[in-house]
């Protein structure tokens, strides 16, 4: 395969993409179980790249995560991957370098079984994906800036007027109190969703009466889909490449990076629609199988975000768990679970019975061999399956949680028992899934990848992980090189998967056996922008590193999740102009701001701030401003230091002291009141008690008040109309430009 940069048009505009053998997606790689794969990947781009073989059980060195397991493919170089094919089923591959997956570096893998066990005449690979005309780096930079434009663009924003019209003001206040804007489903606006590289696909060659195996892969960067079918109910036969007990299933949720196989029957008359609808209802993509009149797939209703907020506000739930901790070295997942999320005494008691001594609370799922269900050493595990199912059932059946109840895996049943030997030691791990939408930081147990150690896994031991999602978003968690049991109502026949979707504010338990694998394996949320913002870990067998990786430090992979992103704004109005420049990574931020009023009032400031946790920073810097109103003849430069704090109800508080011992406090807030329309306000009070300065009139005290208020109308992602009044500059209007 050859990877190169090319101009492509997937959503009505020519943009630079990354192709595999000239296409997006790349070619389907077809193999036979029991064979041996040899794949050459050539990089004809001017940047490094990589390929990860998602869901394949292979030697650690060929897993394809650059700087962790496999060398990056440098520009102009060709890399050889080779591994035995120990499994059959539907899988896929994608780049694991920065955000390249979003630009088109992904494709499908089909491994045919040694013996065919399912009855069908033909098969079709269906790769679902999302497409943006923006540069993926700019998307992540924009998300770090924390604006609502993407939700506005796709019609999923919840402005205050709509909330009030639904009677949801109390719920909105509850969310604001917990520093949450509202329920969120998906982060990014996509102009197109794709089936095998196009918004719609026609497959007219299928004949009436034929049974067709659809191998569906969600290769999207950040979109989960609802899959629906026209005509008769399809039969779900495989999940993540492994056979399940066949079941008729009409509406199936497919998380990012999951795969599902269905058998559909082409009707005697007409063609059936296979439709994938984006989870937030912002778009869809379809494939049509057969000929004649279309038999449409059922519509999936758009989620009711305001209704979700109102239901969640009725519940005893603490939202807004921190994505950053004061002390990331102090990992206390059980305390975090007790403080945040569902406050259920019976469930808390059960969780507290877990081994609190398990410090590896950052752990993840790993399974050994593909044939684990058949392995006599894994015949039965003494876990009380039904108790776990009961606990999950309590979560599902609680009043008000019906909006999440359909996100479960109970329809998946393994054809054979997947339990382990009762004699195996078991290691319990709790992983809280945590995030901060304002700053777009994602983590596990409040600790991003850049601030944590590896998760140690022991061979010959069962690792059982409970995912406790403390965010409003779904998180498809994927462990490289392994499969794991997803505990569901089928108990001993719980299915095996390599990726598990964890719904908002819910728990899912998985377990896996540490076999004879070696090396380090990547584990992460498969929403690309969450992974690249810190929601990842390295799972380690603590074995010596492959000497071929000596010149590729793993720190480079970790640094990818802690890069600096800039978010800047220029205001040009009839009464003043202002510029704000900021660049930040997870913990550090640099700010440069300047305001100049046409009446000759001026202030500029440079600060460095350090995030102690999500909502609190300490900062220091230099401030320059004119000392005489409406005159630039004299300016004063002071050193400043203080704290910045995001309060409940989302007020930005700045409390500081300068080198003249003058305290200053300010508050700022912005609220979207209508679609595209926000109101904002700012108030600042500074006092001088004469501790350093002498006053001419003999007074021992002076103060200064600055305030402004205004409205903003968003014309586009980067441009807004703004009108405001400032007590220094007066009234005016103009443009605000984000860049």
TrEMBL record:
UniProt keywords, alphabetically: Copper, Metal-binding, Oxidoreductase
Annotated ranges, domain Plastocyanin-like: 7-115, 123-272, 427-540
GO molecular function, one term: oxidoreductase activity
InterPro entries the record matches: Cu-oxidase-like_N, Cu-oxidase_2nd, Cu-oxidase_C, Cu-oxidase_fam, Cu_oxidase_Cu_BS, Cupredoxin, CuRO_2_CopA, CuRO_3_CopA
Annotated coiled-coil segments of the chain: none
Name by which UniProt lists this protein: Copper oxidase
């Amino acid at each position: 395969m050859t990877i190169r940069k090319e101009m492509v048009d997937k959503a009505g505009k020519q943009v630079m993409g990354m192709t595999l053998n000239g296409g997006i997606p790349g070619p389907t790689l077809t193999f036979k179980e029991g064979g041996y794969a040899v794949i050459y990947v050539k990089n004809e781009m001017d940047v490094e790249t990589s390929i990860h073989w998602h869901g394949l059980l292979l030697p650690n060195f060929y897993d394809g995560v650059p700087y962790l397991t496999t060398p990056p493919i440098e520009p102009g170089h060709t890399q050889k991957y080779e591994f035995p094919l120990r499994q059959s089923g539907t899988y896929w591959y994608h780049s694991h370098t920065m955000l390249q997956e979003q630009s088109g570096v992904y494709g499908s893998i089909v491994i045919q079984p040694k013996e065919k066990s399912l009855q069908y005449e033909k098969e079709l690979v269906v790769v679902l994906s999302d497409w943006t005309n923006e540069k993926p780096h700019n998307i992540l930079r924009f998300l770090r800036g924390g604006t609502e434009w993407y939700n506005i663009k796709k019609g999923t924003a919840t402005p205050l007027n709509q909330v009030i019209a639904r009677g949801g003001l109390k719920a909105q206040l509850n969310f604001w109190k917990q520093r949450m804007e509202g329920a969120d489903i998906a982060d990014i606006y996509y102009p197109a969703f794709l089936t095998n590289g196009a918004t719609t696909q026609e497959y007219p060659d299928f004949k009436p009466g034929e049974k067709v195996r659809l191998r569906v892969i969600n290769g999207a960067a950040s979109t989960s889909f609802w899959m629906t079918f026209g005509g008769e109910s399809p039969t779900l036969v495989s999940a993540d490449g492994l056979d399940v007990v066949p079941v008729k299933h009409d509406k199936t949720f497919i998380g990012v990076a999951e795969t599902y196989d269905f058998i559909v029957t082409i009707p005697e008359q007409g063609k059936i629609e296979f439709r994938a609808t984006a989870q937030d209802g912002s778009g869809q993509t379809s494939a049509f199988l057969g000929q004649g009149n279309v038999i449409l797939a059922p519509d999936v209703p758009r989620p009711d975000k305001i209704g979700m907020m109102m239901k969640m506000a009725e519940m005893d739930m603490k939202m807004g768990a921190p994505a950053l901790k004061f002390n990331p070295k102090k990992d206390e997942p059980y305390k975090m679970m007790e403080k945040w999320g569902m406050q259920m005494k019976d469930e808390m008691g059960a969780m507290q019975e877990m081994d609190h001594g398990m410090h590896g609370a950052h752990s993840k799922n790993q399974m050994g061999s593909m044939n684990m269900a058949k392995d006599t050493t894994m015949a039965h595990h003494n876990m009380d399956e039904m108790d776990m199912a009961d606990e999950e059932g309590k979560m599902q059946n609680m009043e008000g949680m019906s909006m999440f109840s359909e996100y479960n895996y109970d329809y998946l049943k393994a054809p054979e028992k997947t339990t382990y030997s009762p004699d195996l030691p078991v290691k319990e791990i709790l992983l809280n899934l945590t995030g901060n939408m304002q700053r777009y930081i994602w983590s596990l147990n409040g600790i991003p990848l850049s601030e944590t150690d590896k998760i140690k896994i022991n061979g010959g031991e069962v690792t059982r992980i409970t995912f406790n999602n403390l965010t409003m978003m779904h998180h498809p968690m994927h462990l490289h090189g392994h499969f794991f049991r997803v505990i569901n109502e089928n108990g001993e026949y719980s299915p095996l998967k390599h990726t598990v979707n964890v719904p908002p504010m819910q728990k899912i338990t998985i377990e896996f056996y540490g076999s004879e694998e070696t090396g380090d394996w990547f584990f992460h949320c498969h929403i690309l922008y969450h992974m690249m913002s810190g929601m990842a870990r390295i799972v380690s067998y603590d074995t010596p590193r492959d000497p071929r990786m000596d010149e590729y430090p793993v720190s480079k992979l970790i640094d990818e999740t802690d890069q600096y992103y800039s978010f800047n704004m220029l205001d040009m109005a009839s009464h003043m102009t202002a510029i704000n420049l900021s660049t930040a990574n997870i913990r550090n931020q640099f700010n440069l701001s300047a305001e100049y009023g046409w009446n000759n009032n001026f202030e500029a400031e440079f600060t460095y701030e350090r995030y102690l946790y999500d909502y609190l920073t300490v900062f220091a810097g230099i401030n320059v401003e004119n000392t005489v109103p409406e005159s630039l003849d004299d300016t004063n430069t002071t050193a400043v230091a203080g704290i910045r704090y995001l309060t409940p109800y989302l007020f930005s508080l700045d409390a500081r002291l300068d080198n003249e011992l003058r305290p200053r406090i300010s508050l700022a807030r912005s609220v979207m009141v209508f679609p595209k329309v926000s109101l904002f306000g700012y108030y600042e009070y500074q006092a001088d008690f004469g501790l350093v300065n002498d006053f001419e009139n003999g007074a021992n005290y002076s103060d200064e008040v600055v305030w402004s208020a205004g409205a903003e109308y968003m014309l586009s992602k980067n441009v807004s109309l703004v009108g405001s009044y400032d007590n220094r500059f007066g009234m005016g209007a103009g443009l605000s430009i984000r860049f």
